[in-house]
Recover the amino acids of this structure.
């Protein structure tokens, strides 16, 4: 009943979001960019090591932009509740199979992602985002026991999953550029 491996470029970002209850982008903050870019520059300098020719410029042309591209791709992570489904990246889950929803605070991440993790669970973790949300599934045919994923606003997302109507406290109506589309 669930589709954890959605195909194509469909998702909350390309669908018409008339029924969006919650949406956020888990972008990498500005302070997360300098260290990887500096490391890419240092690695390029190690490869260059003063040699002339292609080896003098190719590492810089390849490694620094590749690092920036990887960081941009990591910053495109989206979490949304739209059109009766929970979307995490390209995976989606009908709200009818959403069971108990638990907030895992930043202090509990190590246990939730380590010894407390079921190997069949769907996991989407971003280290720069503090809390996690654990969404248990009620579909007996689905081998996935729960989804565990990062979110900056777990209480708002939990309220959106519980089906509160827009305008109630704890829910967020979000569209492009509106409040609730992430921080």
């Amino acid at each position: 009943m669930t589709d954890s491996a959605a195909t194509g470029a469909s998702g909350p970002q390309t669908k018409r979001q008339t029924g969006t209850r919650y949406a956020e982008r888990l972008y990498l903050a500005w302070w997360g960019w300098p260290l990887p870019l500096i490391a890419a520059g240092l690695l390029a300098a190690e490869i260059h090591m003063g040699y002339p020719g292609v080896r003098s410029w190719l590492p810089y042309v390849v490694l620094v932009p590749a690092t920036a591209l990887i960081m941009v791709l990591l910053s495109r992570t989206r979490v949304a509740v739209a059109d009766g489904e929970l979307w995490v990246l390209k995976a989606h889950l009908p709200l009818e199979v959403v069971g108990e929803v638990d907030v895992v605070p930043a202090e509990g991440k190590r246990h939730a992602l380590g010894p407390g993790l079921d190997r069949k669970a769907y996991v989407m973790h971003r280290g720069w985002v503090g809390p996690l949300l654990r969404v248990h599934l009620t579909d007996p045919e689905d081998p996935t026991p729960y989804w565990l994923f990062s979110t900056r606003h777990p209480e708002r997302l939990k309220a959106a999953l519980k089906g509160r109507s827009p305008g109630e406290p704890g829910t967020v109506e979000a569209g492009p550029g509106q409040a609730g589309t992430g921080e």
